[in-house]
């Protein structure tokens, strides 16, 4: 069975995740090279991981015939140009989120890969979050009845953040940084085409000029509503997830368990009529008694490294990875819409975009 030879481009904060995740699968992958324009980063990586070939430019790296796959962990506006170069050189491209700086750019990349007979994958690794997967499983089990509202709230710490990821020049801000993860989850919960989107995007405490607080409401053609609230300025964060269905509610507060309170599944909802006549001196429903069942479900340990296993199975065995290019494109379209609705234009002039 083929072992995929990998190069990691961009040796910054997230590169450790790539080394760790890919390195944990020695039967599937072998990391053979690394690349960064910063010599100090190359030196640091060479000390930590001796034996890798080092390149100071992706152009040089792409001439290396040993390399099958390139993972791109550089600044946001570099993602698509680098992926295009990798595909043109006959390599598999793995693109960190955000997958592009616009839906159009991503659409062109996907079309380019198709035209060249190349492969491109998108690292929406939070699709693999254990709590997300468990919540999806519970939602789809029917225990909550017909799901009406899903509220995803995420607060990547109260922080007057000041690195490049907060600067619109680099397609920074929380929408392009954390947004892809949560919008990807939102579209999975939605489970239907998007009917309409409402959003509010603002900058509250970020030092960069990018956004750090948003609410996005996505309504499906199935009438389900998914709310995404994402904030880098909430000092007292609450629940991460609420799913409200006709028979119960699921909540997740970020710990090791998901809580569900649902009407006992053995109790059917009887067909009842409302009473127009004079009521007694109480509120409620006197024609039925509903019993709740409260349940706690363990969230399994994280296994986001499964993304690499699925990617391998796609490349080598032809089993499609769950994160599809068209889904990455759907996420980018939501991001574009939110920027547009809020008259927020990332400044990408330096990058020729
Ligand atoms: N999927 C996730 O969970 C997750 C988490 C964090 C970051 N990310 C994404 O990973 C990417 C990198 O983030 P980071 O925090 O590691 O950034 P970083 O700034 O820490 O690292 C980027 C690295 O890229 C190098 N670089 C810049 N231009 C280059 C070029 N032209 N050629 C080669 N190397 C170059 C820099 O020198 C730096 O070492 C971003 O897209 C970010 O959004 C994803």
What does this structure look like?
With 353 residues, the chain is an alpha/beta fold. Helices cover 29% and strands 24% of the residues. The protein has two domains: 4-124 and 304-318, NAD(P)-binding Rossmann-like Domain (Rossmann fold, 3-Layer(aba) Sandwich); 127-298, Dihydrodipicolinate Reductase, domain 2, CATH 3.30.360.10. The chain contains ten helices and 14 strands. The strands form two sheets. The protein has an eight-stranded mixed sheet with strand order 8-9-10-7-11-12-13-14, with helices on one face. Strands 3-2-1-4-5-6 form a six-stranded parallel sheet, sandwiched between helices. Helix 8 (179-190) crosses helix 10. The protein is elongated, with a radius of gyration of 23 Å. Bound molecules: nicotinamide-adenine-dinucleotide (NAD). Nicotinamide-adenine-dinucleotide is lined by residues 9-15, 35-38, 41, 58, 73-76, 78, 96-97, 123, 125, 177.
Blueprint of the fold:
Layout: E1 4-9, H1 15-23, E2 29-35, H2 39-48, E3 53-55, H3 58-61, E4 69-72, H4 79-88, E5 92-95, H5 103-116, E6 120-122, H6 130-141, E7 147-154, H7 174-177, H8 179-190, E8 194-202, E9 213-220, E10 225-231, E11 241-245, E12 248-252, E13 257-263, E14 292-298, H9 306-317, H10 325-341
Parallel strand pairs: 1-2, 1-4, 2-3, 4-5, 5-6, 7-10
Antiparallel strand pairs: 7-11, 8-9, 9-10, 11-12, 12-13, 13-14
Helix pairs in contact: 4-5, 5-10, 8-10
The chain binds nicotinamide-adenine-dinucleotide.
């Amino acid at each position: 069975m083929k072992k995929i030879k990998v190069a990691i481009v961009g040796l910054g904060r997230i590169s450790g995740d790539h080394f760790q995740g890919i390195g944990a699968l020695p039967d599937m992958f072998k990391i053979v090279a690394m690349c960064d324009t910063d010599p100090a980063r190359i030196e640091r990586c060479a000390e930590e991981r001796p034996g890798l070939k080092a390149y100071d430019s992706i152009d040089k790296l792409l001439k290396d015939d040993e390399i099958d796959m390139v993972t791109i962990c550089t600044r946001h506006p570099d993602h698509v140009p680098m992926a295009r170069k990798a595909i043109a050189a006959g390599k598999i491209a793995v693109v960190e989120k955000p997958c592009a700086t616009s839906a159009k750019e991503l659409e062109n990349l996907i079309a380019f890969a198709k035209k060249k007979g190349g492969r491109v994958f998108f690292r929406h690794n939070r699709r693999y979050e254990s709590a997300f997967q468990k919540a999806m499983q519970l939602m789809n089990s029917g225990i909550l009845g017909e799901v009406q509202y899903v509220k995803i709230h995420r607060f990547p710490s109260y922080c007057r953040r000041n690195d490049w990821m907060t600067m619109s020049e680099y397609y920074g801000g929380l929408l392009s940084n954390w947004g892809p993860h949560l919008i990807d989850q939102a579209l999975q919960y939605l489970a239907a085409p998007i009917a309409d989107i409402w959003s509010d995007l603002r900058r509250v405490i970020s030092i960069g000029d990018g956004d750090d607080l948003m609410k996005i409401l996505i309504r499906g053609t199935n009438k389900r509503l998914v709310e995404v609230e994402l904030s880098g300025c909430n000092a007292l964060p609450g629940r991460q997830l609420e799913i409200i269905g006709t028979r119960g509610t699921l909540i997740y507060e970020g710990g090791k368990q998901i809580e569900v309170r649902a009407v006992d599944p053995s109790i059917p909802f009887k067909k009842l009529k409302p009473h127009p006549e004079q009521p007694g001196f109480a509120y409620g429903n006197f024609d039925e008694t509903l019993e709740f069942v409260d349940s706690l479900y363990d969230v399994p340990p994280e296994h986001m490294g499964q993304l690499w296993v699925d990617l391998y199975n796609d490349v080598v065995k032809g089993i499609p990875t769950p994160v599809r290019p068209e889904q990455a494109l759907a996420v980018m379209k939501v991001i574009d819409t939110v920027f547009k609705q809020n008259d927020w234009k990332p400044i990408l002039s330096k990058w020729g975009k």
